[in-house]
Batch of 2 targets.
Target 1
Amino acid sequence: MEINEVTSLTREGDIAVLAIDSPPVNALSLAVRKGIIDALKHAQDDAAVKAVVLLCEGRTFIAGADITEFGAAPASPNLYDMQDALLAATKPVVAAVHGSALGGGFETALTCHYRIASPSASFGFPEVHLGLIPGAGGTQRLPRLVGIEKSFQLITSGAPFNAKQALEMGVIDELTGENSLRADAVAFANKIVQDGGPLRKIDDIDDKVVSARGKPEILETLLKDADRKIRAAYTTDYVMRALDAAANLPVAEGLALEHQMFFELMTSEQSAALRHVFFAERQVWKVPGLSADTPARAIGTVGVIGAGTMGGGIAMNFLNAGIPVKIVETNQPALDRGVETIRRNYENTVKKGRLSQEKAEARMALLSPSLQLEDLGDVDLIIEAVFENMDIKKEVFGKLDAIAKPGAILATNTSFLDVDEIAAATSRPQDVLGLHFFSPANVMKLLEIVRGKETDPANVATAMALAKRIGKIGVLVGVCFGFVGNRMLAQQLREMKGLILEGAMPWDVDRVHLEFGFAMGPFSVADLAGLDLGWSRETSTGSTIQEILCEMDRRGQKTGAGYYDYDENRRPQPSPVVEELILDFAAKNGIARRTISDEEILERCVYPMINEGAKILEEGIAIRASDIDVVWANGYGFPRSRGGPMHYADTVGLDHIVARLESYQAKLGEDFQPAPLLKKLATQSKAFNA
Ligand code: T1G
C-alpha cells in the first residue's frame, strides 16, 4: 500500500515491509518522516502484522537528515517525532541497511529494535564535517552499544565503518546476503517473532557506559591522545559534553542536552559555511547548456608530456584510476628522475599502509616512459606539463597537432596562460582545453577545467567525467589570466607584499591568516613552494623583498631560510635578518612604516580577492559564486568553516565589503575600486550565493 509519494507498506506474511523511496539518498525529508510515522501507525493497527522491516529502495539506506531543510523554519513532524513513533512501537522493528546509513539515518536505525545490513553497507556519523554533532540520539545511543571510547573516535572523526565492523562492535545483529537484503530481513523478523521475548531497546542498555560513569579522566585522556585536527575542531568540545552525558545522565536528560547543543551548532556560521561547501562541491558538476546526457568520450589511455613535479603528479592520478599513461620527457635523465619519483611516492604510500605492494606494482606497470613525442599518436588524451612559457607551449601543441590521433583531447596544464592562444597553434581548437592541476597534483582535489572559446562541449563533458573518475573536484572555468584561483590569488599576493613594506612583518600577516582559519599563512606557503619559482640570478633586479631573499640564497624551506628561518625540523621562526632587510628596504624606498592592524591585514588580503571574484562572475569566467568558493576551499586552503571567499563575503555583508574597499581606495588607489557587480548586489542588499 502506498503511504505517500516516498513511502510504502507491503505485507509479506506476518511481516510489514516499510519501504522508503526518496531519491537521491533517502534523506529524512518531511515526506519521509511523515511516511514513516503513518506507515508505523498502519502496522501497529493491523493485528495481522507481527513485526516491521524498515528498508530503502535505490542506492542507499537513509543517508541522513535532509540538509536542504537546515536553516529553514522547522517542519512538523520533525526527526524526533519520527523517532518517537519508532520508540513507541509495540511490535519489533528491524532496520535493513544497504548503502550508507549516515547521520540521522544511522540514528533512525538505532531507534529500531534490531539492525541487519548487507556486507557492502556502511555506517557513520559525518556530522562533524558539517560543523554539527549527531543531533537525534547518536551521542547517547552509540555509546550504549559500543562504549565511550569507540564512540569518541567514531563521532569526532566522522569516519564511516563497514558492516563487518558494525557486526563486531554490536551495532548490527546480522549480515545479510549482498543481494537478498529484503528476503533476509523478512526472515530475520519472522525469527524474532517466533522467538518472542521482550522488545530490545538501546535506551535500556547501560552496561557499556556505566564503566565510564564518574570518570571524567577517560574522556580527558581520549582528547589528549586524539590527533591535532580533532583536538582543534570546535565540535569536539560538544562531543565531549554529549558523551559525558551519555556516561552520567539518564538517557532522556542526555538526549535533551544533545538536542540543545545540536541546535546551537546548526545555527552557527561555521556549520552554515560547511553545509554551503558540501552543496557547492556538488553543484560544480552542473554545467548550464551541457545536458547530463552529452556523450563523454572514452578515455582509455593518457599521454603526459613532462615528467617533472607536475607531470609526475598528474600521471599518478590516472595510474591510480587504472588508466595506462605514456609519459614523455626530452632526455633520459629527466625521464628516469620522473619515473623514479612516481615509484618512490607509491613506495612511501605502501610503507604508510595506505596501499598494497601489489597495487603499487600494478600502477607502475601501467606507466610507459618515452623520449618520443610520436609515441603519443594513439592515446585518447594528452596533457602537457612543460615549462610555463607560451612559446614553448605553442611549439608543443603545434607538434601534437601533427602527432595526435583525430579526436584526441589536447590539454594544457598551464596555470594562467591563454588557452585560446595555445589552441590557435593547432588545427583542432575544438579538441583543446585546460586541465589545471594543483601541486601536488596527485594529492590536491581541485582541478580547474579551462574551456576555450572553441572547445567542443563533448570534450567539456569528457573532462568533467574524467575529473570525477580520477577523484578530483572539477570546476569549469573560462579563459583569462589565472582563470579563477590564481587570478584572485594575485590580489592577495600584491597586498601581502605591500603590507610588509608599509608596517607589518610576514609573521604578522601569517598570524592573521592562521587566526582566520587558513592552515598556513601566505608567507609560509611561499617559503614552502619556494621563493625562486620563475626567478633567476641572471635576470634578478633586486627590486622586491622576494628577489633579494633569493639573491641571498634564502629561497624558502628547501634552503632552510626564506621569509622565515627554519630549524633542522623545518620549524619556522621569525627572522631578524628578514626584519632588518624589510626595514632597510622600506627606508631606502622612502616608505614611512606605520602600525597596521590585524583587521587591515585581513581586509586587504581578502576583500580584493572577493572583488576579483565579482569581476570573474561578471565576465562569466566562473559559472556561479559557489564554484569560486569550491576553488578556494579545495585549491588554496581557504577555511571550509568560512565557506569560501564569496560565502564569507555574504556573511560579512556586501555593503560592508564595498564600504571598506572604498575606504582603502581613497587611501591606496584603484586596486580597491569595487566591481560593478559587487556594488549592484550591495545596493540591492543581495548576496553572491543567492
Ligand atoms: N540531505 C540532502 N541532500 C543530500 C544529502 C543530505 N543529507 N546527502 C546527499 N544529498 C544529495 C547531494 O546534494 C546530491 O544532490 C545527491 O544527494 C547525491 O549526493 C540529525 C543532523 C550519502 C555518501 O552528512 O555523504 O543527519 O547534486 O553526490 O557521491 O544527526 O551524499 O544530485 O542534486 O554526495 O553517491 C548527515 C551527506 C546529515 C551525509 C552519497 N549525513 N551525504 O555520496 O552522492 S546531518 C551526511 C554524503 C544529520 C542528524 C544530522 C553523500 C553520500 P544532487 P552525492 P554520492
Target 2
Amino acid sequence: MDEQLARKLQQVGLKFSLPGPFFNYEEIFTGNVNHTYRADYIRDDGTGMARITSYLVQRVNTYAFRDPTGLMKNIDRVTGYIQQQRPEQTCLVYHHTQEGNTFLFDGDEFWRVCNYVPSVTFDKTDDLDIMRSAAQAFGDFQMILNGFDVKSLVYTIPDFHNTRKRYDTLIKDAEEDKLDRVKDVKEELEYLLSVQDLACTLTDMEKKGELPLRVTHNDTKINNVLFDPITHKALVVIDLDTVMPGLVAHDFGDAVRFAANFTEEDAEDTSRTGMDLNVFWAFAEGFLNKTAPVLTQNEQDTLGLSGFVLACELATRFLDDYITGDKYFKVKKPNHNIYRTRCQVALAKDMLKKLGAMDSIVRGCVKKYR
Ligand code: GN1
Ligand code: MG
C-alpha cells in the first residue's frame, strides 16, 4: 500500500464525512484519464458486527477536464434526474462535503466520492447476451434522459466530438512536430488524412443541423457498464464525466469500436484487429431495442458508419497525444499511444470493408424495434 496515497484517501474521506475508520484501498485501473480507488471503511452493522463498506473515490484529471466544477454540476443534475425517473434501479449517488459540495478541490487535486456498486465489468466478451444487455443499458440511458433539458448541460470538454477540430489540432501539432516524433508515425498520419472527409461526416451533418442534439454519454466503452456478478445483467452506466449534448451516433459508434473489435483497443499485434459483425449485431439489437422508436431517419442512417468515424477520431487523439508528448492519456508502456493509434487505424480500415453489412444490420434492427 502506498502510505502517502492511503493518507490522502483518508483525508478525502474525512471531508466527505465517510463513517467508520478507513481500512484499505485498491486502485481500479480501467480508466485512461482519471485515477480511481475503492476505499474500504469498517462500520458497526448495528448488531455489534464489523462490516466493510466501500466507496468509490476518484481524482479527476483536471488536465483533461478544465472545468471540473461545471462537470460535477452536470453529474449532480443528471444522476438526480435518473434517480427520480428510475427510483427502483441501481443509481450512482455522489456524496457531499461538509460545505455541501460534490467535490473537494484543494487548488491542486480535485476529488469526488460516490457509492461503490459491487459488480463485475467486461473489457471484452464473446457472450452476446452480455453485449445486448450493455447495449440496452446505453440505449436506456439515452431514453431516460430524453426529457432532460439538453441545453442546460455544460460542455465538460468543448468540441469533444468535433472531428474536424480534432483533425485540425493533429495537423497543426504534426506540422510543428516539437518532439521530432512524426517520423515514427508517418503511415498512420497519412492514412488518417486520406479519410478525413468521411471521418468528419457526423461533425459536418451536425453543423448543417441534420442531426438532433441529445443528452449523450460520450464514453460508451462496455467497461463503463457495471454488471450483476451473478446474473450478468447490466446494473448501471458509470463514468458520467462526458455526459454532454451530443449525437446518438457518437454513443453507438464509440461503443462498437470498443466492444466489437476482435482485439483490445491498444493491441500491439493488429493482425486480428477488426469488426466482429456478430458482436456488432448483438450491440445493435440491444441499443435499437431501446432507441429505435425515437430516432430520425438521418440518425438511423449514420449508425452504420459511426464506428468508423469514432475510430478515426480517437486515432487522431491518440496520435496527437503521442506527437505532443503523451500528456492526455495515461500511458502504461513506451509507445502506448502509437499502438493505440495503429489499432484504431486497423479497425477503421476493416470497418470500411464491412460498411454495407453494418448498414443492413442497423436497418434490420430498426425495422424490428420501431
Ligand atoms: C478515455 O478514461 P476513459 O477510459 O474513461 C477518453 C475517451 C476515450 C477512451 C479510450 C474524457 O476514457 O474519450 O475513448 O479513453 N475519455 C476522455 O480508451 O477523454
Ligand atoms: Mg471516461
